[in-house]
Amino acid sequence: xxxxxxxxxxxQTAWADPGMHARSxxxxxxxxxxxxxxxGSEIFPGIIGFEDTVVPQVVNAILAxxxxxxxxxxxxxxxxxxxxxxxxxxxxxxxxxxxxxxDNPFRPISKYGRQLLENHGDAAPxxxxxxxxxxxxxxxxxxxxxxxIIGDVDPIKAAxxxxxxxxxxxxxxxxxxxxxxxxxxxNELPDLAxxxxxxxxxxxxxxDVQIKGYPIRLPLDVLLVFSANPEDYTARxxxxxxxxxxxxxEIVTHYPPTVEHGMQITTQEAWLDRxxxxxxxxxxxVELVEHVAFEARTDKRIDSxxxxxxxxxxxxxxxxxxxxxxxxxxxxxxxxVPRPSDLYTALPSITGKIELEYEGELxxxxxxxxxxxxxxxxxxxxxxxxxxDCDEIVQWFDQGGALKVTQYERADLCLAAFETVxxxxxxxxxxxxxxxxxxxxxxxxxxxxxxxxxxQKRIARNEELGYTRGRRSGLGGLGGPTDPGGDPMFG
Length: 491
Known about the structure:
The protein is of the alpha/beta class. It has two domains: 7-252, Rossmann fold; 259-473, no CATH class. The protein is built from 23 helices and 13 strands. The chain has helices at residues 7-10, 18-21, 25-39, 54-63, 78-84, 111-120, 146-149, 155-161, 175-178, 194-198, 201-205, 230-234, 241-246, 259-269, 283-298, 311-331, 347-351, 358-363, 365-385, 391-398, 411-418, 424-431, 439-455; strands at residues 68-71, 92-96, 126-130, 135-139, 151-153, 171-173, 182-187, 208-210, 217-219, 222-228, 249-252, 459-462, 466-469. The strands form five sheets. The protein has a five-stranded parallel beta sheet. A two-stranded antiparallel sheet has the order 2-3. Helix 14 (259-269) packs across helix 15 and helix 22 packs across helix 23 (439-455). The protein is elongated. The chain starts with 6 loop residues before the first helix and ends in a 22-residue tail after the last strand.
């Protein structure tokens, strides 16, 4: 279907109805949201774990036509939610062609738009902009100026057009006017300078902005949404109280409430669909990765005010898949199957995403990261193998057995080594860890059981000796580094 190209043609369509061209962007989003709810459509696809908490509050804010802010620690999908708001806009809307502020053809707000109608009347050209052009996002930084957000005099425009500097046609519009008839999002609002925050007062209450040096008030039609860290927003005084008062809804985000939710997010976001060898990631390995993040969020050595981003398990999973991929390439294996021991190659994805308290700084990020992996293995072992009788396995190590298996060895050779441990493969079968009898998966399952026993201190793991008798069995120092709990570590 051919879209109208002039105002006259537009007047012959549904856009001539004031109910269409006179409605605000907040009304537009409200109507589209109601239509989605009535049709049973998913409101924010891909947003996991917020179905009963954050999403209903965002829906309420939109139905109430509120400007709102999302408060949450890093890695809580705040920016993603804000960008998902685009789905509530019409697929496209008409504007006066050439307008910098998306002038409504029936109600232009700029001098350019008014002159276009005066000069051309019904022959005024119409352009159509898609919904993604109507979402404008700005990261607040200390160097942002009022000209960036609101606008300023543009002497170059004045010189080229022969206009006086006081002429409205010399305005250089900032991001906010350019988002007219759309959504304007500011990330990390408290980092915006105080005078810039003051510049938002009018648009949030009276619906217009004043641009420096011009005796005009520009009536804008825009939904304002923000994101911020709760610590900055409430405790450090970085937000101006009158601006805070003008925000209609304050919505608090959170990390995944359960490990299962976290696993869904991690597998959804991690880059696993790679070209080359087929990749098979055992579900218990994903669970182990997720437990690392959950353990970090409760560790007192890690700054809880900074948070532990959901990007931690995502990048860890990508890293261990890369380690398995490298192993498969070097050893000539047909499939890529990550193992629990691969987590020790992903320590850089952990240490770079945690901020430490004083006690943590004394111990060091890598020591804490290794401890997180050990504890995560224990939690995953308990969840998957709780109640499993491992006495036969532990007894073999107590009697002097030792197992040196490196993470860089082929799966079939590792499996042959694990077969020497009485009861190990039988234990894997009992708890159903290996859904398929493929060497890579069986090796990963065996490692999980051994790592779980290490976490319970029933056996030990040492870089030089591999898996050996645990300290509880009377074996003294094994040589090599130990963690704060005194367990030999292997990585």
